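Worked example

This section walks through a single chain of length 368. The input is the sequence exactly as stored; nothing has been trimmed or padded.
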Amino acid sequence: MAFVNLGRVKQVWKGVYNAGTAYKVDDIVQYTDAGTQNTYICKVASTGNAPSTNGTLHSSWDFQTKSSEGGVFDSSLTIGTAGQALAVNAGATALEWQTITGGMSILAKTANYTIVAADVDGKTETVVSIDVSGGNKTITLPALSAMSATTVLTIIVNVSSSITSGIADYKVVVNQDAADNSGAEIWSGTAKGDFVRMIKMGAAWQVLDNRETFFSRRYMASDQYIDGYNHEHLTAGGWVVYQNSTNSGTLDGNDWGNCWNSSNNEFICPFDCWVDANLSASFPAEANDHGLTASWRINGQDMWRHQSRSSDGRVSGPDGYIRIYQPCTSGWDIEPWNQNMDDNGCTTYGGRSGEVCQLHIRATRRYS
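Given that input, the structure is written out below as tokens.
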């Protein structure tokens, strides 16, 4: 028959520690020290001596069970609320529940929209997608003074502009708040995937990355006769946009951003930009004694104009193709020109389904 030796049962549970109680050896109490709850066992008879102070044991007591404060888990913490995460407190002395902030916010828009501080505050990144298929759109940034936190802000075109006769009609413009830089435009885009990514830095917006689609690909409609030694703006019949609607699965349309001024046969820079301007002209064979060469005129300045003169018709160059890559300012005009270095007149060919005199100009926004 089993039996219990009562003389061997020594530990006695005394509940929550009370300073007025006289504790004997092997009494066990519960005590909360500096926010951490533990159980203690009395090893020397004691009255009025708290088991521990700021984590330091009194000589009358020893730990019976100890919470793992300072380690991975603190058993004294109650469960937090929805949207909280366990973290170290500001003083790095204990664990606590903190409300989770950050993350990404995505806003899909089909009309003009003003971004407010609530859209971005507390977010790691806010993305605003915009459809420009049905008309021009404007996105207005929040006032910098109203933003309480730093966040990355991205505006992206998710549906391209509609295309009419090879020309993309519409764009989205991103403007600053009226109180910031007088509400100046900071970016614009036309095609799906165009985007700007920026961040508030001090008292200004700092663009981190951007891409936009502004270009024109055209051919001269008719032949243009250029008199001897003349330098002439190529305008014969106007410049016609290519209208390959399928374009072998690549981007449809060959004029994006409405940068071409048909009345003066020129490309107008839509913003401060880097311009990549390519002109390919077709001339008669050398046996016809031509002296033609391609050139550009940018903001009234001739670029790569050949100045040689010869009556024998054997001078040519650079050649029928010219490429210029340079920084330009918003509003500058870019015109295709030809120089005749021979004393006899000669023809620059146009028309012919765009297989002869053609140009391609692209503008990429710059911020310096």
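What to look for: Residues 117-120 form the longest helix (4 residues).
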